[in-house]
Amino acid sequence: MNTFKHPLVIAGPCSAESLEQVIGIAEALSSAGVQIFRAGVWKPRTRPGGFEGIGKEALEWLKEVKKKTLMAVTTEVANSVHVEEALSAGIDILWLGARTTVNPFAVQEIADSLRGVDVPVFIKNPINPDIELWCGAVQRLRNAGVSDLGLIHRGFSSYQEKLYRNSPIWQIPIEMKRRFPQLPMICDPSHIAGSRELVPQLCQQAMDLSFDGLMIETHIHPDSALSDGQQQLEPKTLIRLLQSLEFRENDDLAERLTVFRDRIDKIDRSLMELLSERMKISREIGVYKKAHRIPVLQNRRYDTILQESVTQARELDLPPDFVATLMKAIHEESVKQQMS
Ligand code: PEP
Ligand code: MN
Questions:
Q1: Domain-ending residue, one of 193, 215, 244
Q2: Same domain, 291 and 168
Q3: Which of 244, 277, 303 is the last residue of a domain?
Q4: Does residue 3 sit within a domain?
Q5: Residue in 36, 172, 188, 216 to alter for ligand 1 test, most ligand atoms within 8 A of Cβ
């Protein structure tokens, strides 16, 4: 994965639909400098009846892409048969889709079929916001000896989300980057967005968060695509988008951040000291309540604390929801300390 330039851009259609479609898109992308071509060959569809991919035959079209454009090619694998067929067709990079990462049986099957094979593999986040499933997939592949791994953030399914097809919940990929700093993390804005208008801003956000690359669905005729038409970009739009991205790479300026960070660190230390003092008092209250047979919890007192904090939050220009959550956590811990 280290052989590709920064940011790593993977582009191509959601699904391979025909030789002409695949070659047409690939040629447009390769002349714009895109190095890796994606196309789904086996498509996991939420409900039956949709286009489920061309299957094995489309692997031949990806071989043609390699021959004609010299781009590397990548496709999704969801079981050991896919792995075997993709590898024998010379697919350069594999990826596990969100509906696979969510299923440890499927991940283990793929890991087992990759033992002793030296191929780069990207792992998309699971469909639900469970970071442990994502980590589990990394571990299963690593345990099978797959060492060239990368991560793809494609957002998380949610019953409430309105704007995006899949909520970005950026704190999850950020935590994944913290746990696996050596793995490249790329963003798939297409599956987060669900609609093409939202793709550019998501790309910029990913770059601002120092993601290593982007996987963007691209089609010559997005509106007549057999899958995910609404979220695909035309190659020329993708090229303009890539040119418009801004990169924050100024390390000199980053150093000045240490001044701000020092101030933050001081404030954090004071917060900890205050919390420690507050908990000490809570424990003393606990002893007093026990001696005088007063119950630990007085609901009215809790309501007052909460209301006063929320009022103060408004005066201090802090989000009341955030302050309420914080005070609930502090109060819960206080109660625990009073009981100990
Ligand atoms: C895809 O990349 O086309 C795809 C099916 O993605 P995901 O697994 O993120 O839904
Ligand atoms: Mn898709």
A1: 244
A2: no
A3: 244
A4: no
A5: 188
> Do 238 and 260 reside in the same domain of the chain?
no
Q: How many domains does the chain have?
A: 2
Q: Is the CB of 153 under 6 A from ligand 1?
A: no
For ligand 1, whether the C-beta of 98 sits within 6 Å is: yes
Residue 29 beta carbon below 6 angstroms from any ligand 1 atom:
no
Contact 108, 140 (CB under 8 A): yes
List, as ranges, residues with CB under 5 A of the ion ligand 2. 14, 228
pLDDT of 225-254, one tens digit each?
A: 999 999 999 999 999 999 999 998 766 777
Quote the ligand 1 centre to 269 CA distance (angstroms).
43
Helix (H), strand (E) at residue 11: strand 8-12
146: phi then psi, degrees, rounded to nearest 5: -80, 115
Give CA torsion, residues 98, 76, 213, 33, to 10 deg. Answer: -150
**What is the torsion angle, in degrees rounded to the nearest 10, for the CA atoms of residue 70, residue 245, residue 22 and residue 194?**
150
pLDDT digits (tens, 9 = 90+) for 49-74: 889 999 999 999 999 999 999 999 99
Structural domain span for residue 84: 8-244
Q: Is the CB of 191 under 6 A from ligand 1?
A: yes
What global pTM score does this model have?
0.81
Higher-confidence residue of 160 and 54: namely 54
User: Is 320 inside a domain boundary?
Assistant: yes
Q: What is the CATH number of the domain that holds 282?
A: 1.20.59.10
